[in-house]
Amino acid sequence: MKRFILPILAAAVAGIMATSCLKDSDYENYSFYPNAVVTVKTSDAGAVYFQLDDETTLVPENIKKPIYDKEVRAFMNFSDKGPWTGANEESLEFDRLVYVNMLDSIRTKDAVVTLGSTGADDDKFGTAPVEIVDNWYTSLEDNYLTVAFCGYWGDPRETHEINLVYGTDPSNPYLVELRHNPLEDTRHPADVQAIGVIAFRIDDIPGIEGRADHLDIRYVSFTGTKTVTIKRNTNYYAPGAVKSKSSGEVSLDLPVK
Fold first, then answer.
1. What dotted CATH number matches 3-106?
2. Per the database record, which ranges form the NigD-like C-terminal domain (predicted)?
3. Residues 9, 31: contact at Cβ < 8 Å?
4. How much is the pTM?
């Protein structure tokens, strides 16, 4: 992940570590904690802006050049400077002018199509348990599914693979599977739980094309197979309503691909 953090905040963010699963802290008013998950976008002319939700775009006053080489989801802490009053650019109109205090990219990847059978999917994408964490990071918006997840790591330095698999039920395009593959982590499973966040593009899922009002996510949990429904976020931004929230339960550097 590539970070944009004001120097005074860097030491604080560096101390964030993973802890136990399935709980969420809510410490407020720390500007080094995220207060939003956004999509980082770049216009054809090279202007950086952020999609906060399906209806709200943000323009940073302190970032002028692209930070990432592709569109990604990211944690952000921003200060709202009021309505955007700049000139239209490439027929784009933005909503709010913001000052970015912290920006940290989330691993962002495409959803993948099933290989056609449960056995083949098991071999390729793994069967290791994973839990979906019910916190504010987990969301469906702007053609992305962002998931806070919890899994067992034998060695927290080892890379695991998390995938979102679609097409397993041709009659239900909204059913997807979250898969966890520990890869070369030979100490897995072990009594080390870690929480991470990953984002999936859902634009290309047949029958959805990114505008799903919900997704049904099936996964192997610590206690067996579960299916949860995540509805599209319609809780749009209201100025003054966003507060910083602790990411102390989440490892921003958990190695996943």
1. 2.40.50.500
2. 118-231
3. yes
4. 0.84
